[in-house]
Amino acid sequence: MIEGRLVALRALRGEDAEHHLRWRNDPEVVHWACAGDPTFGPATREAVALGFERMLRLIPNESAVLTVETLTDRRVIGMVDYRDLDPWAGCATLGITIGERDFWGTGHGSEAMGLLVDHLFGAYPLVRLQLDTWSGNERAVRAFTRLGFREEGRRRSAVMVGGVRHDEVLFGMLREEWKPRA
To answer: Can you give the C-alpha Rg of the chain in angstroms?
Structure first.
């Protein structure tokens, strides 16, 4: 378990599937988490169960999905993940979804991502971490920037959201740019 002031990150459990099912069937969560990507949601209970079987078997030195829960009452509010962890290249790709809307804009997601960055730079010989979002997700762009990620590029008009084209915004952080949390 990795703990901060507001949230804790813990290993994924089978019972977390219920939360994922609810989030993947919430159009607002799907909109902000992945620009409305239909492969994220809506999803059936069976599809989420199949995905969970795979996620529960992930090898942590390659990829993992961690549950984000509040520190005060251990309420499950989201997930963070890393994938494509490559110690040879020194790189990993990150992601985050805060599925409980009442925790949007409260700092819980930023802290969760910061804890994940601390963990990865502390546990692995990584040189860089990377993530992306879409240009219409201004809250994510601000949060990633505040954490120290730098915009490294854009794939222009690469994301379609509600019939409107947006840029995919690419972010990266080098180990020497990270300021570990106290």
So the answer is: 16
- Predicted TM-score (pTM) of the model is 0.93
Distance CA 128, CA 46 (A): 36
SS (H, E, C) the chain: CEECCCEEEEECCHHHHHHHHHHHCCHHHHHHHHCCCCCCCCCCHHHHHHHHHHHHCCCCCCCEEEEEEECCCCCEEEEEEEEEEECCCCEEEEEEEECCHHHCCCCHHHHHHHHHHHHHHHHCCCCEEEEEEECCCHHHHHHHHHHCCEEEEEEEEEEEECCEEEEEEEEEEEHHHCCCCC
At 19-30, the pLDDT tens digits run 999 999 999 998
Angle, to 10 degrees, between the axis of helix 17-24 and the axis of helix 27-34? 90
CA atoms of 115 and 80, how far apart (whole Å): 10
CA dist 55 and 178 (Å) reads: 28
pLDDT, one tens digit per residue, over 148-181 is 999 999 999 999 998 899 999 999 999 999 988 7
